[in-house]
Design a protein that fits this description.
Layout (H helix, E strand, L loop, with lengths): L7 H9 L5 H28 L3 H10 L2 H11 L1 H46 L7 H35 L1 H18 L1 H21 L7 H11 L5 H15 L10 E2 L6 E2 L4 H11 L3 E5 L6 E6 L25 E3 L4 H11 L3 E5 L5 E6 H9 L14 E5 L2 E5 L4 H8 L7 H4 L5 H9 L8 E4 L2 E8 L4 E8 L5
Parallel strand pairs: 2-3, 5-6
Antiparallel strand pairs: 1-7, 3-4, 6-7, 8-9, 9-12, 10-11, 11-12
């Protein structure tokens, strides 16, 4: 009876402890050289493309041969990247070929046939020829081994080292990459021209950028590695800058019902009381009706007249230059108008010319840097009650932008349902069409809204609950 073929693990162990041939020793040496080249090329990609302005300035000041070569390579980043990619591919292909040869020499054709026979008899039960199984085994072992070596020694370790020592790698690889750039220039030109043609084709078919503001906000969040208060504030400022041009004046204004203004016929005594109680530095002045604002009173103009009698004609201090802007005006344009006209306050008018609200320079800046508080501000400008981390009660008049800031969402969170609404109460009216009763719940993604206090004319208080399970 024929003896059973030996176990496959025994074959590998027995072959490993035998004396290697000269061809095997040379192949292993060549493989080490190729892995070193792969690691150096991979590390140069990280080193060159992570150079900052400070590093480039240091290379310019150094003015050595290697630094001049490095700067020359950096001037054409596309050709440099093409050279690195092509070189790395050639080296990796050579590594696969050499590794396959090493395994074939190490095991020997006889052992490969034995392994193929063992696989044929024990695993595949005659489904494939032993010679084919031997070749497949050789290929799979080569692929697994080469993948491990390339990931560890050709990619991960070199790139980690290059991140910590980029200038050293830049100097070390300046000459080799310069030589490779000239040797591989025909291939690099083809690759660069092909990628440029693809880029132009994509730009012609997609006239608008496919990157959305949500993508940019997500990218900004990824940059916040440590969740400290300062880092979160910096991320919020960046998000505010991104969304700055999309915010309308009506979204930041103080609504008409919250405006503190002075009637033109007001007595000097009553005027001083209003000024003292409001704490504002500028107050609009109107005649008969708030829709007829005729000027702005600057409190600083009153300082030298505080001791005047009650019949003092304070009306002569009114400044008639009032900036009127429509509700739909974007705040970036409003900011430019403030700069050009050297004013800090604008009256926001609706489509019929009536006064809809007041917007100030401070309101605009708060859209970027967050709440700006002075000695006259209340501890909490946005009027709300925080019952728990996910449960709030807001005033119906609270602006949606302020709601988003309080609950930690992007200011564009309600954009897809807000319509013409700017306040939380307006949002409910926009979605329901009437003042809802206390049983009615409005669900927007993971947020549930409910009117908990309302009159026949307006919604006064709204409950907002965040359901984390839906995020």
């Amino acid at each position: 009876m024929d003896s059973e073929p030996p176990n496959i693990l025994f074959i590998l162990f027995q072959t490993a402890i035998t004396n290697p041939s000269d061809g095997l020793a040379f192949s292993i040496f060549f493989l080490i050289v190729l892995l070193t080249c792969s690691g150096l090329i991979s590390s140069s990609e990280v080193a060159y493309f992570s150079l900052g302005l400070k590093d480039i300035k240091a290379l310019e000041e150094e003015n050595s041969i290697s630094s001049r070569r490095a700067l020359a390579l950096k001037e054409k980043p596309r050709y440099l990247l093409a050279t690195i990619l092509i070189s790395n591919n050639f080296v990796n292909i050579a590594i696969v070929i050499v590794a396959e040869q090493i395994l074939r020499i190490w095991l020997g054709p006889e052992n490969l046939i034995i392994i193929g026979q063992w696989l044929h008899n024990n695993l595949f039960y005659g489904l494939a020829n032993p010679d084919v199984l031997a070749d497949i085994f050789n290929f799979l072992v080569t692929v697994v081994g080469v993948t491990f070596m390339l990931v560890l020694f050709g990619e991960a370790m070199p790139k980690i080292y290059a991140t910590l020592n980029k200038l050293r790698i830049v100097h070390l690889m300046a000459l080799p990459l310069t030589v490779l750039k000239y040797l591989l220039s025909p291939f690099s030109k083809i690759l660069v021209n092909w990628s440029s043609a693809m880029e132009k084709s994509l730009n012609s078919t997609n006239t608008q950028s496919s990157t959305t503001k949500e993508d940019i906000d997500a990218a900004i969040d990824l940059t916040v590695t440590n969740k400290t208060e300062a880092s979160v504030q910096e991320a919020d400022i960046l998000k505010g800058i991104v969304n700055f041009g999309d915010i309308a004046a009506r979204q930041i204004m103080h609504p008409r019902m919250d405006i503190i203004a002075i009637e033109y016929s007001e007595s000097f005594k009553d005027l001083m009381k209003i000024v003292k109680d409001s704490g504002y530095s500028r107050l609009p002045v109107y005649k008969e009706d708030l829709d007829n604002i005729i000027g702005i009173l600057y409190v600083k103009d009153l300082l030298e007249h505080t001791e005047k009698p009650e019949n003092y004609e304070w009306q002569k201090l009114i400044r008639s230059s009032v900036l009127f802007v429509p509700e739909s005006k974007k705040i970036d344009e409003l900011l430019r108008e403030f700069q050009l006209k050297r004013t800090h306050m604008a009256v926001i008018v609706d489509e019929y010319g009536g006064t809809a609200g007041i917007a100030t320079l401070e309101d605009i800046m708060e859209e970027v840097v967050g709440e700006i508080k002075d000695e006259f501000d209340n501890d909490e400008e946005v009027d709300y009650i925080k019952i728990s981390d996910n449960n709030y009660i807001f005033e119906g008049k609270t602006l949606l932008n302020d709601v988003c800031r309080v609950i930690g969402e992007n200011t564009s969170y309600f954009d897809h349902v807000r319509g013409e609404a700017d306040s939380l109460a307006g949002l409910l009216l926009e979605m329901v069409g009437h003042i809802p009763n206390s049983e009615k719940e409005i669900i927007i993604e993971n947020i549930t809204l409910k009117a908990i206090s309302a009159t026949k004319r307006r919604i006064e208080k709204i409950s907002l609950i965040i359901d984390d399970s839906k995020t």
